């Protein structure tokens, strides 16, 4: 019993040397020559098993997983921060529901929210988004929504890559471009409106600007979101490009170019 | 990388960067563990993602009790694997045993270059506990102490299990 325990300890010590400290089988055997016959075959098995098990995740999977994890993080964060009785959001939601219910019915709208471009309810999803944009009162709110919609479009493009549908990728890319152009316009609002942010504006001007384009903290949050998307979206699209069929590659490259250019402009506009 | 405890504290306070660092530090290890346990790359990819989403959802419940964060993460992975295997028992599986070498000489068998499919096939001849030890110790690079935490056993028990697992693995590789 004691002998077995001692052997287990020695084996574990040798494994620690081999696996963690970069030692060799010969070094271990030299330390325990009386156990060399017993130890050697076990250590050889471990070295072979270790070599075989050092597999790396596919780069495409790694990028996709990272993107989905970031999305889950953001989704949790926005859920956590959402005020339960936020009157403004409640009002917007209520009006949106009433408005769209008239068009489609509640069950349809709920089902549409997760639909993809090849789904029958996808037009309802797009219509709901338009209503949301229309009913969002502040410019910064609209800009945030545009960012969210751009994120959805990228997910849809990746989905359509799996389906091998180049035509749909082109259509969604146009929508992505539209969201990003709108984002740039909204983000550029203070400069175009003649409110130079470098000079100290009057209180009234500051209040007007905040109402239009949000406070600096809102802009900083939006900027952080866009900075994340500026990295994650092209990475996820590139990962999709790696495994995509040749037929969709040109459309996908266009989507990557739109994504990179759009976020770059939006980030400059927010600076 | 900052020390794990402060990263976990920050992640529990919804710090994305901290959670990102924990994710990056453990992603490959969890993936290897799952691949080796279930032997299916596509399913392992899905499950690896699920492990981190689950961790994200329940990180607030994590408490420091002497076990590292990775042990908690592997516990989640272990539970996902157990659920998966339980559901899978009714489904037909393709045996990978044919790909094993039928080399009669154990030494030659161990020395030749194994690939992951052969290793997965060989581990199917092990008991569940032996397989768990092999996956955690050699694929995921956990220390004996960490494996003990994940499996809820003493270090002495893990050392004994590790010994019997290597012997069984060697036998599986030589017999096929």
Structural description of this entry:
- The complex is a heterodimer of chains A (271) and B (176).
- With 271 residues, chain A is mostly helical.
- Chain A has helices at residues 2-19, 25-31, 36-53, 59-81, 87-103, 106-112, 122-135, 139-163, 166-187, 189-192, 203-213, 216-243, 249-270.
- Chain A has three domains: 2-53, no CATH class; 59-85 and 138-270, no CATH class; 87-135, no CATH class.
- In chain A, helix 1 (2-19) crosses helix 3, helix 5 crosses helix 7 (122-135) and helix 8 packs parallel to helix 12.
- Residues 191-208 of chain A have low confidence and may be disordered.
- Chain B folds into two domains: 1-92, Rna Polymerase Sigma Factor, Chain: A (Orthogonal Bundle); 101-176, Arc Repressor Mutant, subunit A (Orthogonal Bundle).
- Chain B has nine helices and no strands.
- Chain B has helices at 4-12, 16-38, 41-58, 69-88, 106-111, 116-123, 128-139, 144-151, 155-175.
- The longest helix of chain B has 23 residues, at 16-38.
- Chain B is globular and about 50 Å long.
- Chain B starts with a helix and ends with a helix.
- Mean pLDDT of chain B is 82; it is low at 92-104 and 108-113.
- The A-B interface holds A 4-5, 7-9, 11-12, 15-16, 19-20, 41-42, 44-46, 48-58, 61-62, 65-66, 68-70, 72-73, 76-77, 80 and B 14, 16, 19-20, 23, 27-28, 31-32, 35-36, 45, 48-49, 52-53, 56-57, 106-107, 110-116, 118-119, 134-135, 137-139, 141, 143-144, 156, 159-160, 162-163, 166-167, 169-170, 173.
């Amino acid at each position: 019993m004691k002998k077995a325990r001692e052997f287990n300890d020695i084996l574990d010590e040798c494994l620690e040397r081999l696996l963690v400290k970069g030692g060799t089988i010969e070094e271990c055997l030299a330390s325990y020559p009386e156990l060399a016959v017993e130890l050697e075959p076990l250590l050889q098995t471990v070295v072979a098993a270790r070599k075989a098990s050092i597999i790396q995740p596919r780069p495409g999977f790694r990028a996709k997983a990272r993107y989905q994890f970031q999305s889950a993080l953001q989704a949790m964060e926005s859920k956590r921060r959402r005020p339960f009785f936020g009157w403004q959001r409640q009002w917007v939601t209520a009006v949106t529901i009433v408005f769209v219910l008239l068009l489609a019915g509640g069950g349809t709208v709920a089902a549409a929210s997760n639909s993809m471009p090849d789904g029958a309810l996808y037009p309802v999803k797009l219509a709901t988004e338009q209503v949301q944009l229309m009913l969002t009162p502040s410019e910064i709110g609209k800009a945030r929504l545009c960012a969210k919609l751009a994120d959805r479009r990228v997910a849809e493009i990746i989905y359509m890559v799996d389906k091998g549908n180049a035509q749909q990728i082109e259509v969604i890319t146009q929508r992505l471009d539209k969201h990003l152009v709108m984002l740039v316009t909204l983000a550029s609002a203070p400069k175009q409106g003649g409110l130079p942010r470098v000079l100290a504006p009057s209180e009234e001007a500051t209040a007007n600007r905040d109402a239009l384009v949000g406070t600096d903290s809102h802009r900083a949050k939006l900027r952080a979101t866009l900075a994340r998307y500026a990295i994650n979206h092209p990475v996820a699209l590139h990962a999709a490009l790696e495994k995509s069929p040749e037929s969709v590659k040109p459309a996908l490259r266009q989507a990557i170019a739109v994504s990179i250019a759009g976020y770059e402009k939006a980030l400059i506009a927010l600076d | 990388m900052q020390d794990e405890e402060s990263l976990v504290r920050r992640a529990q306070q919804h710090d994305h960067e901290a959670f990102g660092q924990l994710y990056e530090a453990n992603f490959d290890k969890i993936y290897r563990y799952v691949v080796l346990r279930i032997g299916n790359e596509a399913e392992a990819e899905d499950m690896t993602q699920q492990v981190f989403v689950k961790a994200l959802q329940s990180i607030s419940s994590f408490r420091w009790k002497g076990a590292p964060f990775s042990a908690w993460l592997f516990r989640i992975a272990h539970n996902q694997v157990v659920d998966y295997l339980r559901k899978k028992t009714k489904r037909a599986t393709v045996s990978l045993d044919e790909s094993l070498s039928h080399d009669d000489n154990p030494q030659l068998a161990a020395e030749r270059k194994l690939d992951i499919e052969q290793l997965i096939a060989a581990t199917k001849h092990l008991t569940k506990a032996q397989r768990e030890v092999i996956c955690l110790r050699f694929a995921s690079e956990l220390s004996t102490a960490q494996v003990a935490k994940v499996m809820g056993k003493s270090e002495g028990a893990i050392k004994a299990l590790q010994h019997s697992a290597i012997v069984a693995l060697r036998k599986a590789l030589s017999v096929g």
